[in-house]
Specification:
transmembrane helix; alpha+beta; globular; 194 residues
């Protein structure tokens, strides 16, 4: 095996090992911090940020806001970020709730069937999923292709939360979402680059 092949093998082994350790730590953490069924997972008055994935590609912030307000138990959803998912066929948003709906307080994802009224482009059932886990990739921005110069990929630490690791304690400010776009700008025209 040549030098490059060994490098890829080592990187693959390290990646697999890291994933296994992460799953082990996450499993132990979930068992030790489990909350009783139906109890709130956050302190009163604390904001709750969730991810809404599977948002149809032809929706804008207002349509997502309207759809969420039509759901049982949602009265105060604020769309914080809105971007295309890395598959390009749907969008993802971060949504903050002053009071999380009871379905989300249990810590499980909430698949919401998109009714025909909102699902104008598809002839099959489509679901929007709201979750607090943020597993996988979560895009925070979608830039125009002429402005897109770099990709920023942030990884949380072992056992860290993909959103919570980058936000202020007890608040909703998340620097990757709320500041980075404005800090990484082109010197020539001031447009965001990432």
């Amino acid at each position: 095996m040549d030098l490059i092949g060994r490098g890829y093998s080592s990187a693959l082994a390290i990646t697999i090992f890291t994933i296994l350790i992460y799953c082990f730590v996450l499993g132990r953490s979930a068992r030790s911090t489990a909350k009783p069924e139906g109890k709130s997972t956050s302190a009163p008055g604390q904001t709750n940020t969730f991810r809404a994935s599977g948002v149809p590609a032809d929706w804008d912030r207002q349509k997502l806001q309207s759809f969420l307000k039509d759901q049982e138990g949602i009265t105060d959803a604020v769309i914080e970020s809105f971007a295309y998912e890395n598959n390009g066929s749907s969008q993802v948003a971060t949504v903050t709730f002053g009071n999380a709906p009871s379905r989300l307080q249990r810590g499980h994802g909430w698949p919401i069937l998109i009714s025909e009224e909102f699902n104008t482009k598809s002839n099959r059932k489509q679901y929007l999923t709201v979750d607090k886990d943020f597993y996988g990739m979560t895009a925070l921005y979608t830039l125009l292709s002429q402005d897109h110069k770099i990709d920023v990929i942030a990884l949380s630490g072992l056992g860290g939360h993909a959103f919570g690791s980058f936000k202020e304690r007890g608040g909703s400010y998340m620097w990757l979402r709320d500041s980075l776009l404005h800090d990484l700008t082109s010197e020539t025209n001031g447009a965001p680059m990432a």
